[in-house]
User: Which sequence fits this backbone?
């Protein structure tokens, strides 16, 4: 059942985890509609642990990703100063991220379709500027490496039995994540990594978050992020002991 609340802006503080809409009315009054009908993304931590691994990739294979700022600053310095930069390598922490919509409403991008960005390298439209963030933190909580995808395409990759896929990135189709469907970014997709080339071997915290800025309302944000332990060596990486939390 929906709850409608009216409050005077000058004297009331409005706060609700399921806030979805507001409208300013003449006379400094705000109408707030709260509802339980919302999407709810659930980040699959076991998939992150199972698929995380290191890859040394030559930079000539990463040119599309570089256009989206998916490597660290030192990669761009090499590109600017080294005539043979294409043959240099970057060490990438790759992993698969899967987000299942366990809510009762589809997860839809907040940008209208005419504002989606066309990405020539990947040959499809991206409907969200930031859908996920990936960070490597040291023991003091300081970020030592950051993975960032400039924009994302949202679609139904897998669905539970009896649920049909509705959203697709192909042919300027509608984008989103249906109820009981997952958007899966496989580890071999561009930018599905953190560039750890400049990170010294050791023990770290690895954090993955979806809808990290809460631009799209959900029933709960307590299952939108995973904080994991990361063992990084000269030859391999192990991600384990992931727990769900807020971004």
Assistant:
């Amino acid at each position: 059942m929906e709850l409608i609340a009216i409050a005077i802006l000058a004297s009331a503080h409005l706060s609700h985890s399921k806030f979805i809409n507001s409208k300013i009315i003449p006379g400094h009054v705000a109408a707030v509609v709260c509802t339980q009908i919302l999407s709810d993304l659930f980040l699959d931590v076991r998939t992150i642990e199972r698929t995380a691994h290191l890859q040394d990739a030559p930079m000539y294979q990463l040119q599309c990703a570089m256009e989206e700022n998916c490597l660290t600053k030192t990669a761009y310095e090499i590109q600017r100063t080294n005539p043979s930069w294409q043959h240099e390598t970057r060490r990438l922490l790759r992993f698969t991220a899967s987000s299942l919509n366990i809510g009762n409403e589809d997860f839809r991008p907040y940008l209208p379709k005419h504002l989606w960005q066309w990405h020539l390298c990947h040959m499809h439209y991206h409907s969200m500027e930031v859908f996920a963030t990936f960070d490597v933190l040291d023991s003091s909580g300081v970020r030592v490496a950051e993975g960032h995808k400039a924009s994302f395409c949202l679609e139904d990759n897998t669905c539970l039995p009896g649920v049909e896929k509705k959203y697709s990135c192909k042919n300027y189709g509608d984008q989103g994540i249906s109820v009981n469907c997952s958007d899966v970014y496989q580890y071999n997709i561009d930018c599905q990594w953190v560039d750890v080339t400049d990170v010294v071997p050791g023990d770290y915290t690895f954090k993955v978050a979806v809808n990290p800025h809460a631009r799209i309302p959900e029933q709960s944000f307590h299952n939108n992020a995973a904080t994991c332990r990361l063992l990084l060596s000269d030859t391999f990486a192990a991600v384990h002991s992931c727990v769900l939390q807020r971004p």
Notes: The helical segments are 45-51, 63-67, 73-81. The chain is about 10% helix and 40% strand.
